[in-house]
Every structure is written in structure tokens, then in C-alpha cells.
Amino acid sequence: MPLSREYHPIPEFINYITFQKRYSQHTIISYQADLVAFFDFLSAHYTGIAINEISPAVVRSWLALLKEQNLTSKSVNRKISTLKSFFKYLLKTGNVLVSPMSSITSLKVNKRLPSFIEQKDMNTLFSHLEFPDTWEGKTERLLLMIFYQTGMRLSELINLKESHIDKGNSAIKVLGKGNKERIIPVRNYLFQKIEEYIKEKKNLENNSGHIYLLVNKKGNKLYPKYIYNTVKKYLGSVSTSERKSPHVLRHTFATHLTNNGADINAVKELLGHASLASTQVYTHNSIDKLKEIYKLAHPKS
Questions:
Q1: CB–CB of 234/129 below 8 Å?
Q2: DSSP code of 165?
Q3: Which of 41, 131, 266, 301 is most solvent-facing, going by the fewest CB within 10 Å?
Q4: Is 247 a catalytic residue?
Q5: Which residues 6+ apart lie within 8 Å of 291 measured at CB?
Q6: Catalytic: 153?
Q7: Using an 8 Å Cβ cutoff, are 59 and 104 in contact?
Q8: Which of 193, 247, 284, 289 is catalytic?
Q9: Which member of 153, 201, 244, 256 is catalytic?
Q10: Which of 232, 273, 284, 289 is catalytic?
Q11: What CATH number belongs to 5-93?
Q12: Backbone torsions φ then ψ of 174, nearest 5 degrees
């Protein structure tokens, strides 16, 4: 739906988070959808209201409507986050003097422990499962290895470039959310497989200027759906876990690190989390593992 004059702050804000904050395309699309929905609500229920007339009560009436529509608390919280960022921007630009979001708090969400694949199943995937001896098979095996050994997000893997591979320091440079850079150390075995893959890329039909590390047989950048389907297919061959996605491999990476004694702050840096709170969810799985060990090993258990 085209934006009317009432929506004029939205494109300005979208430009701000796109070019100055450098948010991901996924976040930008979500923010824009949230704001358009909010202003549609204002047009329907508060005709003629000005930006500086939006009060906490108006915002709460929208949030209440969302809950009536059976949106989850997590989804409502994302919209709250969108509005907080939006009105923070309007304060910064002088379009409003007071933010209606200052008294709006997020809803309580029951934290779900992250799903992960058992270590024995990952060992089966790489040690016993046969991958086709084709370009697709080699690409699929390598992308699974990178996911599991680095904990990258899907978008980070898709945009991983050959220039990000630092063999001298045995590390991979990753550009994460907000274009933030982090360095992930990796094993020599993975570097060897990456080098073999890069060397074989030169034999592809379209072998000119491979910027991105992982490409299809035509030399083009991989699509998210292709990677998602690949992960789902191979994890389905070794695990009965209900959730099978690239993000589950990210959870698996973090869980296996913490279960094997990795420092939680180190895991935070490897995952590229802005806050330790986001990483601490993995300690629950570690505690469960410790309880299991205690029960088996302690003479009084």
C-alpha cells in the first residue's frame, strides 16, 4: 500500500536503518511491515492523529488488538522493539519531544531451550554419511561443515567471501548483524576442505570472478532456500529432532562448545551476540549434561 503524507516518517526511518545503522535486509523488511501496520491501525481508529499526539494509551490499544488476534508474545515484542527504535529516531530528529514508548514494557516470554543435534549424530553425518561426488555434493558437505564448526548464521554463510578466509591466522572473518565484524578460529582440516573447494571452482563453466566462497554449479551465489533444504535433508538422515535448520546447527555449535567446557564469554564472541544474556541460554543444556554426569558418577547419587 503506498504511503500517504501521514506515513512520511517511515521512509526517512527506513533510510536511516538501511544506510546509517546498516541493519540486515530481513530486519529492515520486518520494521517496515510493523510500522505500516501500526499506521494503518492509527488511520482506522485515530483518524487525523499527528505523530506528536501518539500517546502510550494509543500504543497499548494497538498491542491489545494484536493479542486479541492471537499474536504470540514474541511477535508483539518485536513490534514493540520496532516502535521503540522508530520513536527514538523521531526524538533524535526533533519530530517528537516525548516518546510514547518510554512506559511501554515488553511482554513476558517463556524461554524455550534451543534445539540442537546430538554430538554422536553430527559424527555420523561427517564420518559415515555418503555425499554425492558432484559439485552439489561437495558444496553441501562444505556448507554443513562450516555451519557446525563456526556457528554462523544463514545470512553470514551466504555472504561469506573467499577474501574472508585467513589461512595465515587459521581464522574466518564474518560480517554479522549491523555489519559487525568478528573473527572465528577454525581447524586446519576445514581450511584444507575450503582450499580444495576453491581450487575445484576454477573448473566450473562460469569460473570468472568468484567473490563468494560457496556457489552453485553455475558459479552463482547460493539461495537461502537451497541451503535451508540442504540442511533439513541431511540432518533428517542422522537425527530424529523435529527442528532441522541452519539455526539449529548454530545452536548445536554453541551447545557442544559449552558441554565440553568452553567459557560462556568465548561462546558469546564466537556467536557474535551483543549481550551475554543471549548466550546464557546454552548453559541450561550444560547444566543438564552436568546433572547426567553427576548422577552416573557420584557414589551417593
A1: yes
A2: E
A3: 301
A4: yes
A5: none
A6: yes
A7: yes
A8: 247
A9: 153
A10: 273
A11: 1.10.150.130
A12: -120, 135
Each domain of the chain, given as residue ranges in start order, spans: 5-93, 119-297
Catalytic residue chosen out of the listed positions 148, 197, 234, 282: 282
Q: Can you spell out the DSSP letters for 183-197?
A: EEE--HHHHHHHHHH
Compute the distance between CA of residue 115 and CA of residue 216 in angstroms, rounded to an integer.
29
What is the CATH number that goes with domain 119-297? 1.10.443.10
Quickly count: other Cβ atoms within 10 Å of residue 220's Cβ.
12
**2 band by pLDDT with thresholds 50, 70 and 90:** very low
C-alpha cell at 98: 516525548
Task: Verify whether residue 273 is a known catalytic residue.
Answer: yes
Catalytic residue, from 88, 177, 182, 232: name it: 177
Q: Distance between CA atoms of 25 and 31, rounded to whole angstroms?
A: 10
3-state DSSP call for residue 174?
strand
Q: Is 23 a catalytic residue?
A: no
One of 201, 210, 244, 250 is an active-site residue; which one?
250
What tens digit of pLDDT does each residue of 146-193 get? 999 999 999 999 999 999 999 888 899 998 887 789 999 999 999 999
- Tell me, yes or no, if 8 is annotated catalytic: no
C-alpha cell at 159: 555472504
